[in-house]
Amino acid sequence: MGLVVPYDGSTLSDAALVRANQFDCILEEGVTAVTVIPKGNRTYARDHGWIGSNETYDTDVIVETLRQSVHAIVPDARFEPIFVGSHAPFGTIAGRIRRFARDNDTSIVFLGSDNAGRMVGSLSVGGAVTADKTYDTMIISQSIPAEIEKLEEELPCDELLARATVDN
Hints:
CATH superfamily: HUPs
Protein name: Universal stress protein
CATH architecture: 3-Layer(aba) Sandwich
InterPro entries: Rossmann-like_a/b/a_fold (IPR014729)
Number of strands: 5
Structural class: alpha/beta
Shape: globular
Largest sheet: 5 strands, parallel
Helix content: 40-55%
Order of helices and strands: EHEHHEHEHEHH
């Protein structure tokens, strides 16, 4: 079993990574951050803050930057980039996340992307990811996760989020 976080570098995906890491302190299943990257799509990369407005699209740089962001928060996390066509719709992106979760015997997906921060609907990646019944889904809707005493005793959120702020 494992814990999976669809990671896009947003503050909500950082918070989801923090929460997954807290759960992992208790469950000891391992955390994997998964990023679906539409190859060559500069607009998508800019919209997600992966490149600046004047930067060129470089897949290797984007992957390494995301990997470093993940490891700044959870040093032991696996990072798995998944590549799709340059104009892949939400359904394709969500489908790849679902398939990854199923293929890797995931017990919980911690969903905290910008799309999941609002009501999860059929047009968001979140709605499609939560539809799978082979794993549970935890939606992280706050950039600073609510305190859960037992989890905070194991690993305080503030400590992990401070790492994200310093390294990003």
